[in-house]
Amino acid sequence: MAQAWAFFLLALFSFSSYVSRIFLCSRNGEGSFLCARAPEVPSIVSDRYRTAYHFQPPKNWMNDPNGPMYYNGIYHLFFQHNPNGPQWGDIVWGHSVSTDLVDWIILEPAIEPDTPGDIKGCWSGSATILFGGQPVIMYTGGDVENHQVQNIALPKNRPDLYLREWTKAGNNPVLQPVGPGMNPGEFRDPTTGWIGPDGLWRIGIGAEVNGYSAALLYKSEDFLNWNRVDHPLYSSSASTMWECLDFFAVLPGSNGGLDLSAATPKGAKHVLKFSEDQCDKYMIGVYDLERDAFVPDTVLDDRRLLPRIDYGNYYASKSFFDSKNRRRIIWGWTNESDSSSDDIAKGWAGIYAIPRKIWLDRDGKQLLQWPVEEIDSLRRNEISYQGLDLEKGDLYEIKGVDTLQADVEIDFELTSIDDADSFDPSWLLDPEKHCREAGASVHGGIGPFGLVILASSDMEEHTVVHFRVYKSQKEYMILMCSDIRRSSLRQGLYTPAYGGFFEFDLEKERKISLRTLIDRSAVESFGGGGRVCIIARVYPEAIIDDGKAQMYVFNNGSTTVRVPHLRAWSMMTAQVNLKKG
Predict the structure, then answer these.
(1) Alpha helices (H) in 426-523, listed in sequence order
(2) Distance CA 176, CA 148 (A)
(3) 3-state SS record for 176-240
(4) Under DSSP, is residue 493 helix (H, G, I), strand (E, B) or coil?
(5) Which residues pair with 188 in a beta bridge?
(6) Is the pLDDT of residue 10 over 70?
(7) Taking the domains of the chain in order of start, what are their residue ranges?
(8) Which of 47, 64, 246, 483 is catalytic?
(9) Contact 284, 297 (CB under 8 A)
């Protein structure tokens, strides 16, 4: 039985009817219509939906992160930005700087469309620090013929601590989409450069060649004049175009980062990351120096099986090597999930996920991610619970923190693994579908268990982040879901049930961790020590109506789940748009 601390559901009414009200109230015919809609919907134009510690410019549109780098004690973040409105168009490179990845100074745009090689737009690219400490940006531009070409920009005044002004190379565009089978409208997003064993610089560029996806490889002595290698870094017939490429080295079991241009330690692997199908996917393999090619450890027949950087609302990520702390950090774009008309009314659209440290697990099979430790500086007013036992039907309220701006860390310990339901490998093709079918109201052997957050007092609005445990032939598979289908009573929102699977050795370790960062309209979760990450956007009316929300930990599985440790903090507001001078 649950202890005295537990908020036992039967104290209100039966578990089935209560959970139906919490998790199954529906406006679209998916379940019983139990939730009465308020007669008046508060306007979405509210500062309460703006995030408090996720990066976003003061106003207007933002999409892909570009050219992040650490240079002379300063973190630089460039971003695709429309300075004229909250919709895509008129794209420039916005520019912000920071010393701690938390508070940011907003600067004037670094790159704007004003030359033949970028007159149609200054699109995504990367920053590279050359020998002698010379930063250089390579970015995609839209030329006068609407072809995608590559351009170079250099700091106008290197002694300027913030590198406010950038000058474009006189020989721009330095690369054009020429060659057999090239699609001139699908040639973009150059990677950060790296040095090969021959001393030449290399970059990869996403392209469509003969109808297939390719990471084209180019070489240069001076980073200004480039030649295409006669074979791609890697290519695939499984899709037609990869964009937002990233290529970097990792060392299995080491959470430190590697500089791709430095000597690669023995046993290192390489990661080729790309964006397609509205998500960021990756392959792990080796960079064959003799062939000058990426060789994946595993080639999957179905691209739906490729692992993702994030299983939620996350795209166009870009990583960089942080030489200060010897780590690799990745940034990713999270779009709004409301309507374009809502964005126009609000005057802003787009945030970035929390910058994450990214590394390779000990087995060399999966990338792990975790919020950079600097974010912890925003924590205040810690609360903690120990030794909670959650039986089937238990729901326990977490009090004492700002539930709209919070950081929650929980360990879930399984008292038994005997009742795990059988795993169906076909679920890997569409984990979101399985999260919809196996929602938090559906009883399981082990799970669902997790968090209910941003819940209204009547439970008509809520978001659920939860786990289920399955037994496959060789190992245990954990399903992590971030279900936002009931996150808001507001109409016209995109509210899916995001989800992803990860392997877990429950024979050795019975604790499954969850960390969830709640930031008003952003919910960012890390499961199993960062094996699965899911960020979502939500717009509960309760945030505007009441200015508050409830948070619970729960279990709806047959197996008792123990919570040996639960810690939560209120999060302060970061200064993400300070103005300098």
Answers:
(1) 431-437
(2) 7
(3) CCCCCCEEEEEEECCCCCEECCCCCEEEEEEEEECCEEEEEEEEECCCCCEEECCCCCEEECCCC
(4) coil
(5) 206
(6) no
(7) 62-371, 379-572
(8) 64
(9) yes
Architecture of domain 379-572: Sandwich (2.60)
Cβ(415)–Cβ(559) below 8 Å: yes
- Give the tens place of pLDDT for each residue, 419-460: 999 999 999 999 999 999 999 999 999 999 999 999 999 999
Cross-strand partners of 334: 351
Q: What is the mean pLDDT of residues 169-190?
A: 97
Walk across the sheet containing 148-155 and list its strands.
Answer: 122-130, 134-142, 148-155, 166-168
The total number of residues written for the chain in this structure: 581
Residue 40 scores a pLDDT above 80: no
Cβ–Cβ < 8 Å for 137, 130: no
Structure confidence by residue, pLDDT tens digits, 359-372: 999 999 999 999 99
**Residue 383 tokens, joined:** 């609360």
Burial class of residue 289, CB neighbours in 10 A (0-12, 13-18, 19+):
exposed
Give CA–CA dist 383/455, Å, rounded.
Answer: 19
**Cis omega (within 30 of 0) for bond into 190:** no
Q: 3-state class of 50 per DSSP?
A: coil
Residue of 563, 559, 562, 564 whose CA lies nearest to 417: 559
pTM (2 d.p.): 0.93
Query: For residue 282, what are its two tokens?
Result: 């990756």
Clarify whether 545 is annotated catalytic: no
The residue assigned the tokens 């209910």 is: 452
Q: Roughly how many angstroms between the first and final C-alpha of the chain, as a whole number?
A: 61
The amino acid present at 318, given as its one-letter code, is K
Let me know: does 351 contact 332? Beta carbons within 8 Å. no
Best CA proximity match to 51, nearest among 571, 578, 580, 579: 571
Tokens of 29: 């015919």
Q: Which of 494, 400, 396 is nearest to 450 (CA)?
A: 396
| 13 pLDDT above the threshold of 80 | no
Q: State the number of CA atoms in the 13 A half-sphere of 118 facing the CB.
A: 30
Instruction: Tell me, rounded to whole angstroms, the distance of Cα 498 from its chain centroid.
Output: 12
Residues 6+ apart with CB under 8 A from 348: 50, 56, 57, 58, 59, 60, 61, 86
Distance, in Å, from the CA atom of 282 to the CA atom of 225, rounded to the nearest integer, reads 29
Class of domain 62-371: mainly beta
Task: Give Cα 173 distance to the centre of its chain.
Answer: 31
Angle at Cα 55 formed by Cα 372 and Cα 110, nearest 5°?
Answer: 110
Helix (H, G, I), strand (E, B) or coil at 104: coil
- The answer to whether the CB of 218 falls within 8 A of the CB of 233 is no
Q: Give residue-wise pLDDT tens across range 474-529.
A: 899 999 999 999 999 999 999 999 999 999 999 888 999 999 999 999 999 999 99
